[in-house]
Structure formats: structure tokens, C-alpha cells
Amino acid sequence: MNSLATIFFFCLMLTTAGFCQKPTGVWDAFAYGANGDGKTMDTKAIQLAINRCHEAGGGKVYLHNGTFLSGTIYLKSNVTLYVEAGATLLGSANVADYPSIPSNYPTYGGELVTDKMFIYAEDAHNISIAGRGTIDGRGDEFNGPYLSPSFSGRPRILHFRNCDNLQVREVTLRNSGSWVQFYQSCRNMVIDGITVDSRENKDIEKSRHADAKGRNTDGMDLVDCQVVRVSNCFITSGDDGICLKSLSPGESCRDITITNCIVSTNASGIKIGTETSGAFEDITVQNCTVFDTRVDAISLMTVDGARIERINISNISVRNVKGTAIFVRLGARNRTYRKNAKAATGILKDVLIENVQGTRIGGYGCSITGIPGFPVENITLKQIRLRFDGSNKPLLGDDDTRKPVPIAPPPVNQVVPEKTDAYPRGEMFGRLPAYGFYIRHGRNIVLDNLTLDYADEENRPAIFAEDVDTLEVNGLKAKQSPAVTEVVQLKNVRNSPNMPKSN
Hints:
Layout: H1 3-15, H2 21-24, E1 26-28, E2 37-41, H3 43-55, E3 59-63, E4 67-70, E5 73-74, E6 79-83, E7 88-91, E8 117-122, E9 125-130, E10 134-136, E11 156-161, E12 164-169, E13 172-174, E14 181-184, E15 187-192, E16 195-198, E17 220-223, E18 226-231, E19 234-237, E20 242-246, E21 252-259, E22 262-265, E23 270-276, E24 279-293, E25 296-302, E26 307-321, E27 324-330, E28 347-361, E29 366-369, E30 376-388, E31 437-454, E32 463-474, E33 477-478, E34 488-494
Parallel strand pairs: 1-3, 2-4, 3-6, 4-7, 5-8, 6-9, 7-10, 8-11, 9-12, 10-13, 11-14, 12-15, 13-16, 14-17, 15-18, 16-19, 17-20, 18-21, 19-22, 20-23, 21-24, 22-24, 23-25, 24-26, 25-27, 26-28, 27-29, 28-30, 29-31, 30-31, 31-32, 31-33, 32-34
């Protein structure tokens, strides 16, 4: 072997020991002292590899052939944390291994701290988490307290703030101590092909906390993020599945697409809210499935002053939802998440929901509601086909009562409470006066080619609308209850010449 070849071979061999990194761009955690035995803390070794990779200008920190036990890891610019297939990054069960440190950005309650997290990045760019391995938050063994918000006492798996050019691909995130993923004020994101397995009570037919205490394990939270592409994800979570939020009145969730995802949760499936301080606009959700879900399949809401507009949702399949299939709500809870902030007046308009099919939908009824003086506007539902359980099925919400409600004649002049400042969810009004859609405080509402059915007995009309300015119903096919004379009932509905006369 000549001298040049000898030097090349020697350098190649040393790469596996952590030297000659520049040619390969790979920083092997074993080379920096990791044990990978699942028992010895590897936090320092992994962090050292990340630091060296970042200092060298970037590359890949490689975890392979082992289980790497760790507390909080700080990801840095131009670094990819790669967890190889068969490898596990395992969270410590000790709360002391997840310190809360000062931050440039306010947390949920407005304080400039980080709260608890397993993998964290702040003000970073060009960062990635990839590989076919597993990141296990060890939530079912974690000894942290149950506080509010949950992540002040128990760690999220991923928490990124004010980062850009961020990617998370192919990994499995499981068993979180709190919200699984929390992306705050990040831009240009790709989340593709990941699996979230963090549902502590998996049997939807049991009560929510039958087997374990809930841990608020939201599958994915996008908070004031912009230019985001979420695709090809499978999410099972103990709380909301894919959830868009806003904590800052001056920020927004904008230019977001969610496609080809499968979601099953102990709360809502695909959701805007409940934290809704800033704006939500130009958001598209398509080609998704929501099944075995306890609250709502699709939820759109503004209750803390947010402006929501230009939302497009299409090609959604829904099965076995204990709450309701579609929930649209403008309220005025008016929480603030920033110190000295004031809640604005909420706006919810320009929403298109089309090509939604669902069966085994709970007996509450879907709803599209504003509040007096503040209607939801320009809401179009098109090509919707839903089959509901019926009036005498048990209503199974968060209280897990499972008590059947007997069939009775429809109440005369039923008054649905406004609940202006209540926590928003599909069951918030109880059983609505329509088995299909209840619409109140709306303007320019279009229902185009809806097919509504029920499996058991029913004593309500398919649609009930009140205080609506311009309601258009085209091509409705709805099973009629023998207990009522009209499929559609109206109360104070104006400027709708093709509709029956309003009461």
C-alpha cells in the first residue's frame, strides 16, 4: 500500500473513533463517550457530539446500535440528530434531568423560561431530527408532578422556539411525559413520515382515564408557526392529535398544509385551538383519516381573540368519534398568554369543508356557532356524508358517564345556552336540537349536497338554524325523524329565499 493510500485508510479508520470528521460529516456518539446500554446516562456524550458537530460547521450526530439514556439535549444550528433504525434515545425518569433555564422567548404563561423538554432548540437554523429509530419520553415511568400547564412539571419530547429551516422525518416519538411536540414561532418546517405513539389509554370504548392518569400528550402542536408542511404522519395521542395554536396577539399560524395523515386520540383529531390569541390564515388540510377519537374529528375555533380565515379542509374520513365530526366555534373566553396583553375581538370566516365522510358519530350533533353580535361568516360545507348514532345512544365525553339518554319528544322551544366564555368543544352545549348540524349566529352559510343519516332512533331534525343571515341549503339528503315534521327547522333566519319560512 503506497503512502497516500495508507493515510486515507488510517483517516477512514479513525473516523469511527471521532477523528477526521470533516470528510464524513458524521459525529458518532460512541466516539464521545456514550455507552448506549440504556442504564448509563449518555447526556454529556450526546451533547458533546452535538457541540463538536455545530462548531465544525454542521453534519450528523449518529445514534446507532444501542439505547441511549439521557436528560435534556440542546440541538444547535446545522446539526441533524440521526437515530438509526433499531436505536432508541430514552428519556430519563428523573425530573431533575430536565432543567428549566432562561429563554429569550415567553413560555405558555408569559415567563421567559423554557419549562421541561427532552430535545430543545432556540434561535437555531437548519436543524433536523431523522432516522427510523425511536425517541422514547418514558412518560409512564416519569416521576415529575402533575402541574398546569403539564410541561411545567413533565417534559415534552420536542420543543423548538424561533427556529427556521427545521425538519423532523421518519422517527417514532413515543410515551411522552407531556405534549409530544411543541413548535413555537418557527418558520419553514417539514414534518414528514413520523409516528407518534403516545396514547396512555388506548381503548376508546373505556373511560378516558380507565387504565392510567392522562398526561396531556398532544401529538403535535404548531404554535404561531409559518410555512409548514406536515405529511404522511401516523399519530395516536392521549390528548389532541394535530393542533394549531397561537399564544401571541402579534403572531400567527400561516401558510400551513397538512396532508396524508392518520390520527386517533383521546381528545380532538385535527384542530385549530383552543389557545387562539393571534391569527390563523391560509391553512389547508386534506387526505386525512380520523378514527377512534373521543371529542371532535375536525375542530375550528377562536375563543381568545384570534382571526381565522381562508381555511380549506377536504377529503377527510371519520370513524368512531364519540363527540362530533365537525365543530366550528367563535367564542369569547378571552384568555391572554402574554403579560399585559389584551384579547381582541375574534373573527372566523372564509372556511371551506368538503368531501368529508363519517360513520359512528356520537349523538350530540355538529355545530357552527358564533355569539350574539359576532357571527361566523362565509362557511361552506360541501359533499358531506355523515351517519350518526342517534338520540338514545350513550353520550361519552370527558366525564365518561356512558348513561343512555332515553328517547323523548323534541323539547318545545329548546334554548341552547350561549356559553360565550366556556372552554370550546363539540359537547359544550350538550345534545343539540339537530342530529346533523346546529347553526347559530352566522352569516352566508352554505350547505351543499349533505347526506345525513342516523343508525338508531332519533327525535330531532337534521338541521336547525337560528339567527342566521343568508342560509343556503342545496341538494340535502337527510333521514327524517318520525318525531318531527321538518327535516330543516329555522328560527330567525333572514335573506334565504330558497328556504322554508322561518319561525
